[in-house]
């Protein structure tokens, strides 16, 4: 059993039944000209966590965790994009419109790819999701159950939108969630701060929060004990 110094208390997990979920580290949110920028955001703060997420991925791979990458994406015919969502953003810069990285937030387009530094390895799960949460219309819950996954470590963007939605939905489905605070980011620093606080408040109402260093320490100590 791995024991991580987390908030509001120790987070315990077994690597064999744990997955790291890296949410939406795709060019649409991290590069200029994508969906994030189309919504009026400065994308530069999000790029700053790429090294931390890369370190987290390396750690998870080293310790044999299941690795899952998600991408927020829609079918080319927009059949999975409800009108209310399609109306987000400025006219001409909406989901499906042409941009510098291809059609915005559309499956298969260059902008929809995960940034090269964090590219999925063969055998890792890549989940295309039309919603903010990772369970809606993805079949992921069943796949996780079939794989015996009970605990989920969360990273990616943005903290208060797709990451928090996925974490809350995971909590409702019985998974134990840990948000890695330095491997997630928001376009709004105050929203990130508030999200970290609200996840861990009330005794860990929708999960727990820890730093990457605490996770690494816990995994390294467990490995030393084994050897
Ligand atoms: N706009 C924003 O903060 N986020 C999204 O639209 N999607 C994700 O968080 N991935």
From TrEMBL:
Short name of one Pfam family for this protein?
Isochorismatase
Task: Tell me the superkingdom of the source.
Answer: Bacteria
Does the keyword Hydrolase belong to this entry?
Answer: yes
Matching entries from InterPro entries are given as:
Isochorismatase-like_dom (IPR000868), Isochorismatase-like_hydrls (IPR050272), Isochorismatase-like_sf (IPR036380)
Q: Which SUPFAM superfamilies does the entry link to?
A: Isochorismatase-like hydrolases
Q: Which UniProt keywords apply?
A: Hydrolase
Using the record's annotation, list all stretches that form the Isochorismatase-like domain: 18-208
* PANTHER family in the record: FAMILY HYDROLASE, PUTATIVE (AFU_ORTHOLOGUE AFUA_2G08700)-RELATED (PTHR43540:SF9), PEROXYUREIDOACRYLATE/UREIDOACRYLATE AMIDOHYDROLASE-RELATED (PTHR43540)
Protein name (Swiss-Prot/TrEMBL): Isochorismatase family protein
């Amino acid at each position: 059993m791995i024991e991580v110094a987390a908030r509001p208390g120790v987070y315990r997990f077994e690597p064999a039944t744990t997955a790291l979920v890296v949410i939406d580290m795709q060019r649409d949110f991290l590069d200029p000209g994508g969906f994030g920028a189309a919504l009026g955001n400065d994308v530069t703060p999000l790029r700053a966590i790429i090294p931390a997420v890369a370190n987290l991925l390396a750690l998870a791979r080293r310790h044999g965790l299941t690795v899952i990458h998600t991408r927020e994406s829609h079918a080319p015919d927009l059949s999975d994009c409800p009108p209310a969502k399609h109306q987000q953003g400025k006219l001409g810069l909406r989901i499906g419109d042409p941009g510098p990285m291809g059609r915005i937030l559309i499956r298969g387009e260059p902008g929809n790819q995960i940034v090269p530094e964090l590219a999925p390895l063969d055998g890792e799960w890549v989940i295309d999701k039309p919603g903010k949460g990772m369970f809606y219309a993805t079949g992921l819950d069943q796949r996780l159950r079939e794989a015996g996954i009970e605990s989920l470590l969360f990273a990616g963007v943005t903290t208060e939108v797709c990451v928090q939605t996925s974490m809350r939905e995971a909590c409702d489905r019985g998974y134990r969630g840990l948000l890695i605070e330095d491997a997630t980011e928001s376009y709004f620093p105050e929203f990130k701060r508030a999200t970290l606080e609200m996840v861990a408040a009330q005794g860990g109402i929708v999960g727990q929060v820890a730093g990457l260093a605490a996770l690494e320490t816990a995994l390294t100590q467990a490995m030393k004990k084994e050897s």
